[in-house]
Amino acid sequence: MTIDSAEPASAPTRRRANGGRRPNLHETVVSRLRDLIVEGALAPAARIAERQLCESLGVSRTPLREALKVLASEGLVELLPNRGARVARLDERDVEDMFQVMGALEALAGTLACAQMTEGELAEIAALHYEMLAQYTRRKLPEYFRLNQAIHAAIVAAARNPVLMTTYQSLAGRIRRARYFANLSDERWRHAVEEHEAILDALRARDGARLAELLAEHLRNKSAVLRSDKL
Predict the structure, then answer these.
(1) Residue 42 pLDDT greater than 60, yes or no
(2) Alpha-carbon distance 166 to 161, whole Å?
């Protein structure tokens, strides 16, 4: 896997998350490395093999180490003084606490978004939703998950609250891996899709109270799956 001018198959999704612009090298390395961690290719507590990653990503150590600093700020990587870095462990108590806070943030975002989003924003969220369903039908979890996260981020953006956005972004990276793992169960994945159908219906109806309830429940259900799996 090398990073060059050719964009990967998921590039349209990545451009959506970046406001329609092409990501630069730094963003690309961060995104690729984040995906490796979130999707389990790099396991919790595993040491980061910098030389191997540099070769596979086609970059020097400088952009890789800068990317590791970003992921450390997101809670996905632990930087070890004079010993490189390793993938952060998933702590059950921390994960549960993060899901509680994220559920409250997304519920608030849903209430605000229903009152303020434009028809264009609603259409964009609907388009992401149907792209996500197509990936679910193909059973492509990584592609499904990127679209799923783009939907949640779009709802937060439509809330038009900079403080909410900043708080959400500070937590989103840390909780991303746990959200991905929660879909590894076929039954939970199916339920998540059903929940997203209801979320889109509430958005279209601009029913803020209903959407807040659905988003909070969506996060509670993911947390319950992770507790049952003892992650």
Answers:
(1) yes
(2) 9
Rounded CA gap, 79 and 77, in Å?
Answer: 6
For domain 92-229, which CATH number applies: 3.40.190.10, 1.20.120.530, 3.40.1160.10, 3.40.640.10? Answer: 1.20.120.530
Summarised one tens digit per residue, pLDDT across range 3-37 is: 332 334 454 554 554 555 567 888 999 989 999 99
In CATH, 11-87 is 1.10.10.10: yes
**pTM value?**
0.80
3-state secondary structure of 79: strand
Give the helix/strand (H/E) hosting 80: strand 77-80
Q: Is 136 exposed, middle or buried (0-12, 13-18, 19+ CB in 10 A)?
A: buried
Q: Which residues pair with 85 in a beta bridge?
A: 79
Mean pLDDT for the chain? 88
Q: In sequence order, which residues have a C-beta less than 8 Å from that of residue 113 and are 6 or more positions away?
A: 121, 155, 156, 158, 159, 203, 208, 211
Q: Say if residue 163 is exposed, middle or buried (CB neighbours under 10 Å; 0-12, 13-18, 19+).
A: exposed
Q: Is the pLDDT of residue 140 over 70?
A: yes
Give residue 87's identity as a one-letter amino acid code. V
**CA triplet 1, 151, 227: central angle to 5 degrees?**
85
- φ, ψ of residue 184 to 5 degrees: the values are -70, -25
What are the residues whose beta carbons fall under 8 Å from the beta carbon of 173, sequence distance 6 or more?
34, 71, 73, 74, 75, 76
Tell me the backbone φ, ψ of residue 215, rounded to 5 degrees: -65, -40
